[in-house]
Amino acid sequence: MSTADLPTVNAFLNSASTVLIVSALVAIKGGHKRIHAKLMMAALVSSTLFLIGYLVHKAFHGTTTSEHMGAFRPYYLALLTSHTFLAIVNLPLIIGTVWAAVRGNFERHKRLARFTWPVWLYVSVTGVLVYFILYVWYPAPH
Fold this sequence. Notes:
Strand content: under 5%
Number of domains: 1
Structural class: mainly alpha
Number of strands: 0
Radius of gyration: 16 Å
């Protein structure tokens, strides 16, 4: 595997995070606290590995261009802007939510998770969409 393969790996990791956080919500709604905790830790690992892969890819390959998208480009940039903004916001939300759970402050954890969960889901899903737009549907010409 080379650093050029990282976008595909990252899309897989984002997809895994999506499945894990949805599964974790189902688990906690069903009263399965231990399963919820394990699923959320797996989602945290998956998202952390994504972030590492994303930063490594950017360090070696820079930004992927989108000038070749034609009329679709403004829609892509709107999606990318919301994705990027919420990804930045999401990091401290995740840290705060996890920290509350680790400290046993489950009321605070629950309050924070009401904001963190949908943002994390949006960022994970739109991350996969960004991958498909850039590398499958509108790949840069060589």
